[in-house]
Amino acid sequence: MTIPRLLVVDDDAELRQMLTMFLQQNGCIALPAGNEAEIRKHLASGRIDLILLDVMLGDESGVEICARLREEQSVPIIMVSALSADSDRMAGYAVGADDYIAKPFNTDLLLARIRAVLARARRTSSLAHRRQKATFRFAGWYYDSKRDEVISPEGYQVSLSRRETMLLRALLANARIPLTRQEISVALDVTGEGEKASDAEGRAIDVLVGRLRAKIEKDPKAPEMLRTERGVGYVFAVDVVAEDGQ
């Protein structure tokens, strides 16, 4: 199962740390944020699968932040608030929140609600950027996803198979983020609904990585872009610039 990357947003540093540690102890990658600027910094720097968003963030409104985020992308959002009236809940749902939990709450219940929202969102793979980009530039290379064209720094087109292309797109969308074989299998739809990849499927991914390296690396035996991350899986270790198409 894919390890979810969650963003814990609360202006209470103590509560933020407590929730972050609880989620980390329960199989999640949990990142802390205290305001909208920090939320956007995390969203810009890598994959976020779900945002746990407090309604009252000092001078900022979680409801207004949710509304602005929802205009741009569909990352799942669970709102958390001491305000538990039906009108408060409806205000959260009205701006696109996926769920609304009132404080104080049982942490086990919170974890169950998080897992439920993630399960509903699984059909839109957690490895794919919600705002799809059309072109990618990396280390002198150029990839046009609409035309499925991969152009080398020397200007010639490199032919990739369908699965090699799918692997490249997953890597480009998650540059510098170490990905497990299970996460890659979800991106390639190897196992369907995000189920754990078998050993055979893991080996198939290793073979696929080797084939892609042979086509895009100067020296496939000493890769500079598609590197092995010891104990994890693989990481696309160069900067990627994603652009919207014309």
Cross-sheet strand order for the largest sheet: 2-1-3-6-7
Could you please say which CATH topology of the largest domain applies here?
Rossmann fold
Number of DSSP-assigned strands:
15
**Tally the helices: what do you get?**
8
CATH homologous superfamily caption of the largest domain: Response regulator
Q: Determine the N-to-C terminus distance.
A: 36 Å
CATH architecture of the largest domain: 3-Layer(aba) Sandwich
Task: List SSEs in N-to-C order.
Answer: EHEHEEEHEHEHEEEEHEHHEEE
- Please report the first level of CATH classification, the CATH class of the largest domain: Alpha Beta
Topology:
Blueprint: E1 5-9, H1 13-25, E2 29-33, H2 36-45, E3 50-54, E4 56-57, E5 60-61, H3 62-72, E6 77-81, H4 86-94, E7 99-102, H5 107-121, E8 135-138, E9 141-144, E10 149-151, E11 157-158, H6 162-173, E12 179-180, H7 181-187, H8 199-216, E13 226-229, E14 233-236, E15 241-243
Helix pairs in contact: 6-8, 7-8
